[in-house]
## 1
Amino acid sequence: MILILDLGGKYSNSLGKRIRQSKVYCEIVPYNHPIEEIKSKKPEGIIIVGESDKEFSDLNTDVFNLGIPVMAIGYGTRFIEEAFGGSSTKSLGNGYNFESVHVDRESPIFNGMKENLNMWMDMDCVFETIPEGFEKIAELGSNVVAIGKEDSKIYGVKFHPEVEGSTDGEYIIDNFLFKVCNCDKSWNLEEFIANSIEEIRRKVGQKKALCALSGGVDSSVAAVLVHKAIGDKLVCVFVDHGLLRKNEKEQVIDTFREKFHMNLIAVDAKVRFLSKLKGVTDPEEKRKIIGEEFIRVFEEEKNKLTDIDFLVQGTIYPDIIESGFDGNRVVKSHHNVGGLPEDMDFQLIEPLRQLFKDEVREVGRLLGISEEIVNRQPFPGPGLGVRVLGEVTEEKLEILREADHIFREEIDKANLKDKIWQYFAAIPDIRSVGVIDGERTYNYTIILRAVNSVDAMTATWARIPLEVLDKISKRITSEVPRVNRVVYDITDKPPATIEWE
């Protein structure tokens, strides 16, 4: 196992995925994770990575006293400077760029590679003085960009080998995993499934579990995995909170009752959810309200049954990371992480909480779930509650359902469904002036969002042909009442998130 200490930014997630692709298990924790907890995990190696340029006053340099290999990447090299001295300088320019780096192939992390590698380089920062006991192992021109302390197996590189496009960057990571840390290629999803089933059976025992089933990829895979473990002791609850897409309730009920033969309870909770959301405009507050109301519905269903002590959720690793490891650095509170009430009457079973999105899909395939479900578009737990910006109302929900349905229908007709990772419509809390049938209107705007991604941690906006966008816009403005404007979001993640709220 490799432990990643995260200083912030997107690089830890790319690195984590890359390590797991090499069949080595890894976990991501904050840079200031307690040293005793690091020791208890017994990692074969530690990688420190990040892109934050802020000052950190609580760097724990005890990681270098554990007697295990450490590689620091990017701003992670501050750990080395804090522990061993040395310094960095900002002399090459601003920002990141691909640069040709000359490496010492005698170093284990560059062994067997070319002498010159194209690396994603932080142009703001290179080593100015090398800490005592370290040697330079890579240069950019006359500047030192990587150092190593071979007797302690400690390395620091100012560039990011995990970034796609870096020449042979994956081999640098593999060299650290296998030549320095002596890791085994033991991480595989078949073993994950077997271990998860055994652990779930042990944990649940003779009790029963309630599964929060939305029909999305994550909750579906979690439900089938737990069903494999405990069979009829799993009761699935599908909550219609009034925030679903068009025809979604019918599709979910048909799939899991008829095809998977699961015990599925469908709860109509539209009125209670919308009444709780009335007047609420803050997205974090909406997520927390929806998360708490979900739990209250499940508790009520639990009280109608017997021996149910567990709640199954489709929480995945990006949910944990974005919601903040320890309550800090929150991107957004996911309803099943930061939005859970503290007094809920359940023990949680989250079998997917250590998996990235692409791993979840592969587990689904291994469990025999159809491609239709495994490749289903991501849909947030709060549903349209975070795609109706501002206050959630019946009127805006109905407008959004119809616009979103048209968007998805036209993407399907254009044979783009399998070429775009996620696409959806949102409705902002604004209206604008327009003209329909020669008369002035003051109606709603629809936002179209389409992105390509692998694990939802980063995303690029999808290049939908203009003629397709034109057709979608014309259909929405002519077929959906009270809409007079359609806009297309062309922002990557980061700086934006995929969802608008």
## 2
Amino acid sequence: MTPKPPKIVIIGAGSAIFGLGALSTMMQSEQLRGAHLALCDVDEPGLELVTALAHKMNDAWGSEITISSSTNRRELLPGADFVLVSVQVGPRETVWEMDWRIPLRHGIHQPYAENGGPGAFSHTARNLPLILDIARDMEQLCPDAYYLNLTNPLIRLTTAVHRYTKIKVVGLCHQLLWGYAMAGAILADRYGIQVPDHFHVHTDADNMPNFIPVARAAVEHLEIKAAGINHFSWVYDIRDKTTGEDLYPELRERWLNHYRRDFEPLTREIFEIYGMMPTAGDSHMCEYLSVVHDPITKPWEKYDLKLQSWDGNRRRRASRKALAEAIVSGKTPVDDLRDVWRHNMLDEGIPEMIGAVMYNSNHYHQQLNIPNNGFIPNLPQGAIVEVPGIISGIGFQGLSFPPLPEGIAALCRRELELASLVVEATATGDRQLSLQALLLDPMVTDIDTARAILDDFLVEFAEYLPQFA
């Protein structure tokens, strides 16, 4: 008997980073023809816009999808097979900048302040109650559904759902594309890849038009297998996609000895020291390191570590809203959104994953954040690790890898232990545990500083931290 088409709930359907691109790829998927797509967002005007856009795509592309929407997720969750979550608590760019500025006033210069450093503590604390509330609603209304989490800090929030609920959770990230882009730039002449002058892979909205063509070209020619933890994974194997030739020796020789010294210089140095290529690029990799915040040596200057462009993100959000409005009003053809890459959106591969589970199509996916079931033997069992895997009717199954080199594994274990403590502290609203978590962070080196940062976080973000009330 053919399985019924899936019901897919998207919470945060108006997401600037995820929403439009995911909607387009789902509407174009033959495997999802006839599915039920339920759209949820707390921003009612934004939800109305994305719902109108979904109807426009559905009619134009003959997707035969049933569309529903509500600002109340509990109305949509019953009967769901998959729940995709891309949410943020608080105005995204405003609170992110505060995550950076509050520690800075106490002398801690974070290089990025999203997934690591004290800013990631408050980022976790704001989002975790909502992330868990969604999972607990799922336990009541769709207990067998998969929770696909796309919200950062990915390790921490995915850990929370896995630890405190019975829901099947998978964290999804596209960061391996940054590894492809770096390898593609290094091996560009071999494959005729056009690389812009002064190319870099900083994670920044304004850099995406330069980044995406190089990343896409690299994906056409290369096959990378990487594993570790989110935003801190490591290349085990890199090969020519057509011939199977091992390219690791050439990549290592070119990058360490012959390529621009200013190209992702921190990544290059870590590659040289530890012997494996990190995949995330300097912007994200630096978040888990203790050697990037010293106020005397100022490594952020030495390695040109750039903050996220919050204004760039705001511009991207506005431009995507304008695109949706133009399509809904008829000023822009709906087919303009068929190629999501053209609009600097990333194809997350969501339809392929859902189709693989529903119809047992054995889909290989390069990045799954799932509990470690021996996949990386020298990282903690049950911790959320990032590995490639096979998705099929039996679910999301990770692939096993040899142990990481011990120096790398130690860095990963430290971050996983910190993530575990942050999750417990922010789930329970325990101030003492929160102080302990900040003191475990590699960027915090003083007890009084940690106390002062925690006090400021709890005061300035009080409206978003009900667990600490």
## 3
Amino acid sequence: MNIFTYGSLMFAPVWRAVVKGDYRSRPAVVRGFVRRCVKNETYHGVIAAAPQQVLAGRVYFDVDGLDVQRLDRFEGSYYRREAVQVMLEDEKLSRARIYVFKDEYRSLLEARDWDVAWFEREGLKHFLRDYQGFDRD
């Protein structure tokens, strides 16, 4: 299964802390989604948006079933996996799964976009410190 990531999992240290396998990945975009901050957290949620909205991220290819289960546990009960079409840098299209914030938890999201540059610069180290106990069984 291909997995499209758009936040913390785009960063190799987080991805490697969650999965066991070594997967090929490439930058990609999906349409119709936006990233929102989760209140009082360094992470975020993605929700459906207007079709012209473009969400940049990274797609990991052929993730095995055990690692998908690890990703499901990492994402937790706030998210569901959804099928999407991703566009790669060379404009080729591919199918993937994306973790979308469930409607019943939308009240936990802020109206502001999640800042990828801020996360890379400041939030990543806090995120890794706070989430050291990733389930790697």
## 4
Amino acid sequence: MTPSATKHWWERDTTPGFVLIAATIVSFILLNGPASAFFHHLLEQQIGALSIGVGEGAHPLNLHLIINDALMVIFFLYVGLELKRETVEGPFKNPREAALPLVGAIGGMAAPALFYVALNTSEPAYLRGWAIPAATDIAFAIGVLSLLGPRVPAGLRLFLLALAIIDDLGAIIVIALFYSTHLIGWALGGAIATFVVMLMMNRGGVTALWLYWLLGLVMWGFMLISGVHATIAGVLTAMTVPMRNAAGGSPLIAAEHALKYWVQFAIMPIFALVNAGVVLRGAGLETLLHPIASGVALGLIAGKPLGIMLATYLACLVIKQRAPATAPQMLGIAMLAGIGFTMSLFIGNLAFGMSDLATPVRFGVLGGSFASALLGLIVLWFATRNAHPAPSALTQEEELAAKHGVFEER
């Protein structure tokens, strides 16, 4: 019996991906069934007379805003904790080990953006979505990879994980720089001041997590008003959480474990339920061939693997380091990185909101992600068909790392 067989169903790598697929299917049904009008009204109906923000940046408070600007902060907090852990105690603390996935991730973000821009230069308004195909969904990518079981080399799996984590960091930076509008100076100053206080708490040895959550909530409130997208507060909060306490324990790893299942089985599915579905009524061939849909899909399917492969092998030549796997295996992994889904949908929502352009965005993201998953699986299936299964080696590696607090068991 393999170690994965002894896990509870919610602990398996594939489960979050299947839950997201189920949420997407339900979203399609709700948006195209008899309850579509009620579902839309439920999401967009203003709660009382409440609004978020001031002046031109004010938005009516509704369920859609709560999910995208509040619940997703917790998702980014979780991603931020993972990023810090990998940087402080994980593989990223070694610059040489981090070089290949770092350069690969940069190439994997740049190439899809160029594909998108090339197909949308005729309409300047569409260019705001250039970052949509640049993102990778960690949960889906790792979940799809796990379908191949232990035949996938451990180094290849770690490369995809590192690539996706760095990709998420890049997406966070993009959101902060390019999708923040109507900046309010005093609120931005309040957010910065709160962040500085939290850093001082960290340096002063404060390890009580509830204090960081409380000040993180304050910083989120300032961010929400400031015009900088509020999800950035989640990442900044994660940066201040202590890695170790005086007894050698890890508040950060404890927080990450506490959030893991909430993020995977509540927050991400709820986001997919609200944002992944596409209204099929009136959507014809022109919608499928819309420049936005084509740019997003082509960026994910072709741009991602092309950018990752070129950048990674160029880095191998420069630093004289071997690739973590064979060329066909690397190609399969690069294709799986084209599964954008949650992050791509999130950036698409920031770029175009709930306008008429939301439909081609979703078609492009879902179509491109599905094709990337299928092509990646096919390539990896053939590339690893002669590989010798080694579940015990990977399990031992992860158990050893978990004992030392390097990363959580996956």
